[in-house]
Amino acid sequence: MHAQDFRRLFVRYKILALLLALAAIWIFFHVATGGAFISARNLSNLLRQTSITGMLACGMVFVIIAGEIDLSVGSLLGLLGGVVAVLTVNLQWSSWSAVLLVLLLGLAAGLFNGFIVTRLRVPSFIVGLGGMLAFRGVLQGITHGATIAPVPADLVYLAEGYLPPWPSSLLATGAFAVLVALTLLRRRRRKAQSIPQAAAWLDVLKLAVAGAVLAIFTSMLNRYSGIPLPVLLLLALLVIFSYVASQTVLGRHIYAVGGNVEASRLSGIRVSGVKMVVFGLMGLMCAFAGIINTARLAAGSPSAGTNGELDAIAACFIGGTSMRGGAGTVHGALIGALVMASLDNGMSMMDVDNYWQLIVKGAILVIAVWVDVLSGAKRD
């Protein structure tokens, strides 16, 4: 196989290549840590660690697909998490009242960013940069630069709780059954419409691999305490966002706007409305991530969410989202988030100096964008 053929194969199957790279990372760290990396306890911790970046990536992937960027998400995560702590600790609100208000505040903050971008026509890069500074300043102000703790136990449970082994196994079985049903339904529809489709054995192979992965992960997590609640929330968001992206008019409009704004506008798509929605969803994901982060720390910290925007953006690019907009998947972004979390987790277990961790993550981000450039060259 020539280098050109290898490049085309790599570009065409980016997600497969990403999964192989993730497997290589896990094997390396497993050997380097003497078998401690791929253990039930560390896997549970790794997935819990991935959930916060993954929630941000769910929103960020839509923002980038729509041709925009949001640099304020790390600071907004910290601010919303700080608001939860202030409400529950200082003002003695109930946890659920505080959570509801923070979700609404996150949605409002995202819509406000979208309003400035779409109505006032300020570039999203500048809006995000301004928000990153302003939200961090507000967080410093409401916390007075001090950690607010301890938050209530029922709030902590959102990050530290588990779905017990028996319901976890039942959920995994149900998820596999849904995958089988969706595959059969898709094949039946394509056959009815005389649309060419992949060989049946290929779908069977995909289902077999998916079933094996579900079984292995569920078994390992059940060996510890079950599936962590933040991971369940992230999986639910994955299903919702994937459905929106692939099965709804809004999803098609998001891809269209990112692919060609002028063509979208001429075809009758309300470009400003679509961008308002993606920024609103981004703010909502910041609220979810901020709540889980505060619950995990059992405190509101003035430094919470620092560099969160960089991890979310890197996860999207590593997962195959195009920096030019118009292309990307939610599941790819979440795999990218898992790659980022795996690097953090593995290098921390190996006691690698922090500066090396930053160098490695930066190099991987550049490689991911290089692959996107290759993909663009292939389309051109």
TrEMBL record:
Regions that span the bilayer: 15-40, 99-118, 125-146, 166-186, 198-221, 227-245, 274-292, 355-374
Protein name: Xylose transport system permease protein XylH
Function: Part of the binding-protein-dependent transport system for D-xylose. Probably responsible for the translocation of the substrate across the membrane.
Topological type in the membrane: Multi-pass membrane protein
Subcellular location, principal: membrane
Keywords: Cell inner membrane, Cell membrane, Membrane, Sugar transport, Transmembrane, Transmembrane helix, Transport
Lineage: Bacteria, Pseudomonadati, Pseudomonadota, Gammaproteobacteria, Lysobacterales
Highest taxon of source: Bacteria
Family indicated by similarity: Belongs to the binding-protein-dependent transport system permease family. AraH/RbsC subfamily.
Subcellular locations according to the entry: Cell inner membrane
One Pfam entry name: BPD_transp_2
Originating species: Dyella mobilis
